[in-house]
Amino acid sequence: MSIIADDSALAAHLAEIAGKLLLQVRDSGLLSLKTLGKAGDQTANQFLIHAITEQRPDDGLLSEESKDTDARLSKSRVWIIDPVDGTREYGEGRTDWAVHVALAIDGTPVIGAVALPGLGVVLRSDQPTEIPPAPEKLRMVVSRTRPAAEALTVANALGAECIPMGSAGAKAMAVVRGEADIYLHNGGQYEWDSCAPAAVAAAFGLHVSRIDGSPMVYNQVDTYIPDLLICRKEHAQSVLDALKAASAN
Prior knowledge:
metal ion binding, Fructose-1,6-Bisphosphatase, Chain A, domain 1, 5-stranded mixed sheet, D-Maltodextrin-Binding Protein, domain 2
């Protein structure tokens, strides 16, 4: 067994390999749409769990697809993973799904890798690149099935174009890649949905916070962390102000 000493390299390698495994499962053609998502989740999760346990045996671990325990709460370093972020999109053969691998240290999302296997891309916190300037008309990514009311309200206030998209990771990385300018979400997310995207987005110089402007804090007893704002720093105050105005009405 080879040991990958660098945490960032490990996160990126794990996300990339898990993504390739998921593509192999989907491309096998042996599973129905009904069972494909579950098979993909289990395959990627088993690989990630075993690999992290072997590579970092002293660290804590939280996965969407594994039973949580309180063992991680006493750890300073905790790996937070989502083996398939966007199971529906994965099963439908779309590209807007992701694999999340993150390392939170003392609750802060320090290291992250988000693989977009359908696009052959891995975004990683240790390799930030410059994000191109925003267009005059801002672009906001929203859920393609359940757009948050707050996001639609803010988009209207800012005159932003709404772009429907699948998983949380895909939406966050659209901002990181300069394909969108704002990702605002409220309701229905957990730590594994946002930890890796938050780490990557912050490393790329983006604003990352809760929708009240407070920081994202991970490895909590309650893993529910329902809201998230990722955007260019120059737009953060306008978005937060629009949210406050909406909540006051």
